[in-house]
Amino acid sequence: MPAIPLPASTVVLVRPDAERKFEIYLNRRPEQMDTYAGVYVFPGGRVEASDWSTAMISLTRGVTPDEAQKKFGVDLRPELCLGYWIAAVRELFEEVGIHFFLSESETDGAQPQQTLLNRVAAERAALQRGEIAFADFLLSQRLYCDLARLHYIFHRITPEHYRVRFDTRFYLAALPPDQSPFDALEEVSESLWISPERALERYQAGNFPMMPPTLMVLRSLSAHRTWEELRDAFDLC
After folding, report:
1. Per the count of CB atoms within 10 A, which of 97, 145, 172, 199 is most buried?
2. Does some domain include residue 1?
3. pTM for the complete prediction?
4. CA–CA gap between residue 215 and residue 207 (Å, rounded)
5. b/e per residue, 123-159, with b = 16+ CB within 10 A?
């Protein structure tokens, strides 16, 4: 019997380069991981039940449960649909240190993002280890998830012949100008910024392993030739 797909979210981070084109962020999973060992992937992970709890949803801004369901175009509970957005923000922060948070006192996003990151950096590792709940972390820091930064682009379910399967929603997001992802953490052996075209070239050369959904996203993004074209197509902020 095929394994039941687990809900998951993935974030495709993009940034402009010096030639008015753009780069995407990829990290390589450690060789000792149980799934997709040594493969280059976008940051992401599983959607947990706590991601779509009432308490967690109250700590979000930018997308409502009904709006999330409408964007997916599926007959899922609106709260679960929004949980995919929340998981994307949580996993991005846990995995590579990039945060899409708003301060309680400045929900318009006026607080410098690096200042906010310095304030919460100590809690990130505890969150990643499961020692504190995401909602409790946000409450303690008086923060909200800024879901409007994520743009839903793609849905993929792992084929039935895989031992572990995921029902994954892919999001596109611009890297905040005053943030940088960590080079290597618990679930990342190395990371890099690379153009979609160059990543595909390296894959074809046989020294850059990637999964089919990653390839599909890269091929789609490579159709946009400049940063301005990509930004305008997806209303990136």
Report:
1. 145
2. no
3. 0.91
4. 14
5. bbeebbeeeeebbebbeeeebbbbbbbbbbbeebebe
